[in-house]
Specification:
The protein has 119 residues and is an alpha+beta fold. The protein has one domain (2-117): 3-Layer(aba) Sandwich (Glutaredoxin), CATH 3.40.30.10. It is built from 5 helices and 4 strands, in the order E-H-E-H-H-H-E-E-H. The protein has helices spanning 10-21, 38-48, 61-66, 78-87, 110-117, and strands at residues 2-5, 27-30, 96-98, 104-106. It has a 4-stranded mixed sheet with strand order 2-1-3-4, sandwiched between helices. Helix 1 packs across helix 5. The radius of gyration is 14 Å and the shape is globular. The model has no long low-confidence stretch (mean pLDDT 97).
């Protein structure tokens, strides 16, 4: 199990705390420092069953600068979104847990973290 975190994020710290309480074995990826490649983002999206716009933090200043809210949300523009997430990792919703069964969850709630733990 791997968890993508931003240490400054309270949701990330909460998820880590719950993983520790449950004695989970996991690795931490500080994705702002160890930036995911476009291929890694595509892989995680496949595991999440989501599209890149589903995990984009559209309220971040860089999102507003790029105007991502106005970008088309379709297959033709999917790579543009993925490239933006890799180029500007602050746009990636967090935390993301990749579970041992090959799935992943955006673990913003205790329920989502427990769901990842059960996989």
């Amino acid at each position: 199990m791997e968890i993508w975190i931003n240490p400054a994020c309270s949701k990330c710290r909460g998820a880590l705390g719950l993983l520790d309480e449950e004695g989970a074995e996991y690795t931490v990826r500080r994705y702002l420092e160890d930036v995911p490649t476009p291929d890694e983002i595509r892989e995680v999206l496949g595991r999440l069953g989501l599209e890149p716009w589903d995990i984009t933090r559209t309220q971040e200043p860089v999102a507003k600068e790029l105007g991502v809210k106005e970008w088309p949300r379709d297959a033709e523009h999917r790579d543009r979104w993925v490239e933006a997430l890799s180029a500007h990792p602050k746009l990636i919703q967090r935390p993301i847990i990749t579970a041992d069964d090959g799935t992943a969850v955006v673990a913003r709630s205790e329920e989502a973290v427990r769901d990842a733990l059960s996989r």
